[in-house]
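Marked as duplicate of an earlier ticket. Keeping the data here for the record.
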Amino acid sequence: MYDEIIGYEDLWREVLDTSYETVKIAVHCLDNQVGASFKEWLTLPDMGLLVSTAFNVILVNLSHGSALTFLPLRSAQPLSLHNRPIIAMINDRNIHWVMVKLRVNALLPSLYLSWDRYVEDCAKGWRDGFVFRDIAPLATVDEGIISVVDLGTP
């Protein structure tokens, strides 16, 4: 991710605005396997577009009070709509991230608003075939047990 944030510095300075320097330090720590302080941990929504773009995946945040979908900004989508990699995560009590599996053809939470502002033409196809809806919260963690609300199907 460090190559991404440095290689497209002007874009990420605009996207991340005041959090750019903090995110750059966090990504540098991650890439160099150096310990990061709590303020430099993965945070969403500010790092969502960066993660999605750097790893060319659809990132879904189902955390309490913040249900959002992040799509890559620059890469063309896979030829098959069904081969798009989706990573869904919830934040367990602001301590760590837990990956969860979505049902096939699940509806996705709202698309991150800034995506439309920064997406390049070649990446606009990532949105095709998805139904987004505004729901929050979608998931909760209670005493270590993950409970995910059924997102439904289109």
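See parent ticket for discussion. Strands lie at 58-63, 66-70, 86-92, 96-100, 108-109, 132-133, 139-142, 145-148.
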